[in-house]
Design goal:
By secondary structure, the protein is an alpha+beta fold. It folds into 4 domains: 227 residues, Rhodopsin 7-helix transmembrane proteins (Rhopdopsin 7-helix transmembrane proteins), CATH 1.20.1070.10; 169 residues, GAF domain (Beta-Lactamase, 2-Layer Sandwich), CATH 3.30.450; 55 residues; 166 residues, Heat Shock Protein 90 (2-Layer Sandwich). It has 25 helices and 16 strands. The protein has a 6-stranded antiparallel beta sheet with strand order 6-5-4-9-8-7, with helices on both faces. Helix 18 packs antiparallel against helix 19. It is elongated.
C-alpha cells in the first residue's frame, strides 16, 4: 500500500465508524437512512482509493467504481439535506424534491454508462496515470460540479432556516456535509482542467474528506434526534437567493461545457471563440441580473411552485367584497380600503393618494399609522401635510408604465426627486389604482412590514388584485356621480324654461316704460339718463332670456356665441374697464407677442368675469388681484392670482363639481360652467390653492392655426392699463 493511500484508508475507517453509529440511531428519524447511504458511498470511494495499489492490474476497473462513487456522492449529500427539510420543514412545497429526482436520475444514467462502456471514459497513459477521454469524461465531472453546487445551496438554505436550538444541534453536521461537497467541486474542477487522475489528488482528497467527516462526527455527537421536533419555516428570501445561485451555477457549468467542446475542435480560432463565448455569457448574465422584469418573474415562479399559498384567497376575496358592499360613495370606499390595508399587512404606515383634475397633481388624502386608533381625524384630508405630486414625478411615470405594484429600490431612496416623498410616506411598495386604459386614478403606499420580512410576490399579487377591484369601484361611483350631476344640470335647464315667460314679460314692461318715458317725459338730463339705464337693463334682461331659452334646449354653454378673432390682452382690458372698482382694481400685466385666437368672445368674457368676481370676494378689502397673459410658442396662458384666504384640500377637490358651493347662498354652478366653456375651446383650466396662501387660476388656450400664431398684437402703449411696478420687479 502506497503512502498516498493512507489518508483514504483513515477516511474509509472513519466512515465505517460513523456508519455504525448511524445504523444504531436509525430509529431516531428517517434522516439517518440517507446518512447511512452517504457513509457507504464514502467507504466505496476512499476504500478503493486506499487499496488501489493492491489491484494495480485491474486499476481501470477499480477506478470505474470510484468514478461511480464520485458521481453518486453529491446526490447523497443532497438527499440528506432533502430528508432534513422534509422532516422538519413547515412548508413542504419548499423542499425542491423535483430537483433531486432529476439529479438522481442523471447520476443513475451516468453510472450505467460508466459501467456499460468498457473503459468507462478513461484510459491509462504510458506513465500509468488515469486520463479521462474528452469531452465525454470532462462533461461527467461537470455534472458532479453542478450536483455538488445544488447540494451546497440546499445545505445553506437549511442552515439559515433552522432556528435555535435546531441550528445549534445540526450546524456541524451541515458544515461537514458542505465540506464533502466542496471537496467534490474542487476535485472535479481540477480534473476538468487537467484531465489526469493523479496520486497526489487522492492523497489531498483523503485528508480533506477525513477533516469533513471529523466535523460531521462532532455534529452527530451533539445531535439528539428524538428532541428535534420543532418545525422550521424556510425564508422566502433565503430560497430566492439559493435558487438564484443554483441557476447561475448551472448556467456557468453549461457555458464551461460548451467552451470545453469548442476547445477540443480543430478550428484555428477555437481559443478566441472560447473567449468570446465566455464574454457573451458573462454579459448575458449581467443583463439578466439587472433586469427587474426577469427578477420579478423569477420570484413569481419560486413563490408559486416552491411555497404554499401565503393567503387563503377565497377567504380574502369574501372579506374584501363584504367590506366594500355597504359603501355608498367614493369617500367610504377609500376609508374601507385604508382599513383593509392596515389590517392585512403588518406595516407601520399606509397612505392613499388621489389625482385631482383641478390642479393636475396627486394629493395624499388618507393615511394611517400603526399603534394609533383609526379616527376620522386620521382620515381627514385637512390634517395631511404631504406636498402634492405632479404628473411629471418619476414615481407616476413608473406606475403608469408598468401598472404593477412597485417596490422602491435602494437607489431611489437617495434620489432628490424621491427623498421628500419617501420622508413623508416611508414607502417600500407603491400600488397603482389604474384602469386598463392606462388612466392612473391614484395609488397607495405601504411602509416596511413590522417584522422586517419585506414584501414577497404573494403580497404583491394580493395588492394588485385588490387594487384592481378598488379601481373598478371608484370608476363605477365616478360614473354614478357624473350621471347624477348631469341629471341635476338637466333639471336646471328644464326649470329655466318655466320662468322664461316671466322674464319675457318683465323685459317687455321695462322696454315699454323706457319708450314711454322717452316720448312723454321732460327733457331733464337726469330723466334721460334714467330712461337710458332702464333701456339698457331691459336689453340685458332680453339677452338673459335668450340665453336661458338656448340653455333650456341645448346644454352646450358656448353654442349661442359666434366664433371671432379675440385679442386676449384687449379683452381683459375692456373687461376690467367695465367692472371698474376704485376700491379693488386688479393689476394687469399684458404679455408681449400674444397671438390673436379664434374664440367665442362673450363666453370667454363670462369665464373671466366669473373668476374676477370670485377673487374679489376672496380678498376682501385688503388683498390684491394680479392678472397676466403670456405666449409660450404653443399656447396662450392667462393667469389670475389673488391673495385671499385660499382653499382647503376638501374644497379644492370638489371645486369643479356642480352644486358644490362654499358660498352660503351660492348655487355651485359658476366654476363648473367656466370649466365646460374652456374645455369647449380645447383649453385647460387649473386651480392651485392652499389655505392662507391665496389662489392661482391658470387657463391655457392652444393656438389653433398658423394664422393665429402669426397674428401678433403689438402697440399696447395706447391702452389705458394700470401697471404695478412692484409686481414686475
Amino acid at each position: 500500500m502506497s503512502v498516498w493511500g493512507i489518508p483514504s484508508i483513515l477516511t474509509a475507517g472513519v466512515s465505517m465508524f460513523l456508519a455504525t453509529i448511524i445504523f444504531v440511531k436509525r430509529k431516531d428519524g428517517p434522516h439517518f437512512f440517507p446518512l447511512f447511504l452517504l457513509m457507504a458511498v464514502m467507504i466505496l470511494i476512499h476504500g478503493l482509493n486506499g487499496i488501489q495499489d493492491v489491484f494495480a492490474v485491474h486499476l481501470l476497473i477499480s477506478k470505474k467504481f470510484i468514478f461511480i462513487g464520485e458521481v453518486i456522492l453529491p446526490v447523497m449529500i443532497g438527499y440528506v439535506g432533502y430528508s432534513l427539510l422534509k422532516e422538519f420543514s413547515a412548508n413542504s412545497l419548499a423542499l425542491g424534491g423535483g430537483w433531486w429526482k432529476i439529479i438522481a436520475g442523471g447520476a443513475a444514467l451516468l453510472a450505467m454508462l460508466i459501467m456499460a462502456i468498457p473503459d468507462g471514459f478513461m484510459q491509462v497513459n504510458p506513465e500509468g496515470e488515469i486520463v479521462f477521454r474528452t469531452p465525454e469524461g470532462l462533461m461527467i465531472w461537470g455534472f458532479i460540479v453542478l450536483a455538488s453546487c445544488v447540494g451546497i445551496f440546499q445545505l445553506e438554505r437549511i442552515l439559515h432556516s433552522f432556528p435555535d436550538p435546531l441550528q445549534y444541534r445540526l450546524k456541524y453536521v451541515l458544515i461537514g456535509l458542505g465540506g464533502l461537497a466542496c471537496i467534490s467541486i474542487a476535485q472535479a474542477i481540477h480534473l476538468v482542467v487537467d484531465s489526469v487522475w493523479k496520486q497526489e489528488d487522492v492523497w489531498a482528497g483523503g485528508i480533506a474528506s477525513f477533516s469533513s467527516l471529523a466535523v460531521l462526527g462532532l455534529g452527530l455527537k451533539r445531535w439528539q434526534g428524538s428532541q428535534l421536533t420543532q418545525k422550521i419555516q424556510v425564508s422566502h428570501h433565503a430560497l430566492y437567493a439559493s435558487l438564484a445561485v443554483v441557476c447561475v451555477s448551472v448556467y456557468f457549468v453549461l457555458v464551461a461545457m460548451v467552451t470545453a467542446v469548442v476547445q477540443q475542435t480543430d478550428w484555428e480560432v477555437k481559443e478566441s471563440l472560447a473567449m468570446v463565448l465566455m464574454f457573451l455569457a458573462v454579459m448575458g448574465l449581467v443583463v439578466a441580473t439587472l433586469s427587474r422584469r426577469i427578477r420579478a418573474e423569477f420570484q413569481q415562479v419560486v413563490s408559486r411552485h416552491f411555497f404554499k399559498a401565503k393567503y387563503d384567497y377565497r377567504e380574502k376575496w369574501l372579506e374584501v367584497t363584504e367590506s366594500f358592499a355597504a359603501c355608498q360613495d367614493v369617500q367610504q370606499i377609500l376609508n374601507r380600503y385604508l382599513e383593509w390595508l392596515s389590517r392585512t399587512f403588518r406595516t407601520s404606515r399606509v397612505t392613499i393618494w388621489k389625482f385631482f383634475d383641478v390642479d393636475g397633481r396627486y394629493h395624499q388624502i388618507r393615511k394611517e399609522r400603526r399603534r394609533r386608533k383609526l379616527t376620522e381625524n386620521d382620515r381627514s384630508p385637512d390634517s395631511l401635510d404631504a406636498i402634492p405630486i405632479p404628473e411629471t414625478h418619476p414615481l407616476i411615470y413608473q406606475l403608469k408604465a408598468q401598472q404593477e405594484p412597485l417596490l422602491v429600490q435602494v437607489g431611489q431612496r437617495s434620489a432628490e426627486d424621491w427623498r421628500e416623498f419617501l420622508d413623508v410616506t416611508r414607502a417600500h411598495v407603491c400600488v397603482p389604482l389604474a384602469t386598463e386604459q392606462g388612466r392612473l386614478l391614484g395609488f397607495c403606499t405601504l411602509s416596511q412590514e413590522s417584522v422586517h420580512e419585506g414584501y414577497d410576490q404573494e403580497d404583491l399579487d394580493l395588492l394588485r388584485a385588490i387594487a384592481h377591484h378598488v379601481t373598478m369601484l371608484l370608476i363605477q361611483f365616478e360614473l354614478v356621480e357624473e350621471r347624477g350631476s348631469s341629471a341635476k344640470w338637466e333639471a336646471v335647464h328644464r326649470f329655466s324654461a318655466f320662468y322664461l315667460h316671466d322674464l319675457k314679460n318683465l323685459a317687455s314692461s321695462l322696454s315699454l316704460v323706457a319708450q314711454n318715458a322717452a316720448q312723454y317725459g321732460s327733457n331733464s338730463e337726469f330723466q334721460i339718463s334714467a330712461m337710458q339705464t332702464v333701456k339698457n337693463t331691459s336689453q340685458r334682461i332680453m339677452d338673459l332670456m335668450e340665453e336661458l331659452s338656448r340653455q333650456a334646449k341645448e346644454p352646450n354653454l358656448t353654442e349661442g356665441f359666434a366664433t371671432e378673432s379675440v385679442d386676449m390682452n384687449l379683452l381683459i382690458k375692456d373687461l376690467l374697464t367695465a367692472v371698474n372698482d376704485p376700491g379693488c382694481q386688479p393689476n394687469f400685466s399684458p404679455g408681449l407677442e400674444v397671438p390673436v385666437l379664434q374664440l367665442k368672445k362673450e363666453a370667454i368674457k363670462q369665464v373671466l368675469l366669473n373668476l374676477i368676481l370670485n377673487a374679489r370676494q376672496a380678498i376682501g378689502q385688503t388683498g390684491t388681484i394680479d392678472i397676466s397673459t403670456a405666449y409660450d410658442g404653443k399656447q396662450v396662458i392667462v393667469e389670475l392670482v389673488d391673495t385671499g384666504e385660499g382653499m382647503s384640500v376638501t374644497e379644492l377637490e370638489k371645486i369643479f363639481q356642480p352644486f358644490k358651493s362654499s358660498k352660503k347662498n351660492g348655487l355651485g354652478v359658476g366654476l363648473f360652467q367656466c370649466k365646460r366653456i374652456v374645455e369647449d375651446h380645447h383649453g385647460v383650466i387649473h386651480i392651485e390653492s392652499q389655505e392662507g396662501r391665496g389662489t392661482t387660476v391658470i387657463i391655457t388656450f392652444p393656438v389653433q392655426s398658423a394664422d393665429n400664431a402669426g397674428t401678433v398684437v403689438f402697440g399696447l402703449s395706447n391702452a389705458k392699463v394700470e401697471y404695478d411696478s412692484g409686481r414686475n420687479e
